[in-house]
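User: tokens in, sequence out, please.
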């Protein structure tokens, strides 16, 4: 993805290389601390997981779905965890037989590669802007915005008190509190805060964390709170998919943003990046 960084109105090559190295070192330190603070799956006992009944994750069932945080564990780490017997790759359909199927791995965080793609290719220059992450959990998007963008205000809204405490500890320890703020609240109580944002990230919030009957209420609230012309929304899944089971109409709210040639190239060659979507409020 290096060529994206060099053609996306970023600093000169030498300066860029130094910035990327600094970012990598900062994120590596954060990852080490988070691995010691949360379970391998990144899911807390205080969380309530709702397995989707509709949409692209409707086939995920508790018996064959494994939660592994993609920010904390990349593919190499995943192989190590499997080798060490800490997680399995397959499950047995008929106990004791060889009739096995691969487990489904789900992450509720962006990987480092996704963060780079979002802040160095998908979005425009965020110098001086305000970004809000809805359901910030471990703070992954916040840390990515800090090291990869010039956003002046980076705000995470998270309703789980344990995750809020973890994020605040990381922010303080790693000296990120000059630009990052954690708001411990249900996002549906933070309309005024959302209205201040230039970019709103909604990454894997409804699937697994909201019962299906609450989806319409959630997206109606987001639609009413994030509607200033020009505001960007970064989502996974796409709004087209997320709004299918709701009464919210996308056409009157936001439109997909045309990707740069470099971003198109990366998305075309990496299905994981292609799952990220960016929209602009009309």
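Assistant: Sequence out:
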């Amino acid at each position: 993805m290096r060529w994206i960084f060099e053609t996306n109105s970023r600093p000169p090559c030498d300066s860029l290389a130094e910035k990327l190295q600094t970012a990598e070192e900062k994120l590596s330190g954060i990852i080490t601390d988070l691995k010691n603070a949360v379970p391998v799956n990144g899911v807390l006992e205080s969380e309530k997981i709702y397995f989707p009944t509709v949409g692209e994750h409707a086939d995920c069932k508790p018996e064959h779905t494994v939660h592994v945080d993609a920010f904390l564990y990349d593919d190499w780490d995943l192989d190590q965890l499997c080798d060490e017997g800490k997680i399995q790759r397959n499950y047995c359909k008929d106990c004791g037989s060889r009739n096995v199927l691969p487990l489904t791995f789900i992450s509720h965080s962006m990987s480092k590669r996704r963060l780079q793609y979002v802040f160095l290719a998908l979005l425009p220059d965020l110098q001086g802007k305000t970004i809000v992450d809805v359901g910030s959990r471990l703070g992954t998007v916040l840390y990515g915005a800090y090291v990869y963008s010039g956003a002046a205000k980076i705000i995470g809204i998270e309703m789980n008190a344990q995750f809020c405490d973890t994020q605040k500890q990381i922010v303080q320890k790693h000296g990120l509190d000059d630009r990052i703020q954690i708001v411990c609240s249900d996002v549906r109580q933070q309309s005024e805060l959302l209205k201040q944002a230039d970019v709103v990230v909604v990454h894997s919030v409804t699937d697994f964390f909201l019962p299906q009957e609450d989806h319409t209420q959630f997206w109606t609230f987001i639609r009413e709170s994030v509607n200033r012309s020009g505001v960007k929304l970064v989502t996974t899944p796409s709004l087209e998919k997320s709004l299918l089971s709701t009464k919210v109409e996308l056409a009157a709210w936001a439109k997909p943003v045309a990707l740069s040639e470099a971003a198109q190239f990366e998305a075309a060659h990496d299905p994981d990046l292609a799952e990220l979507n960016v929209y602009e409020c009309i």
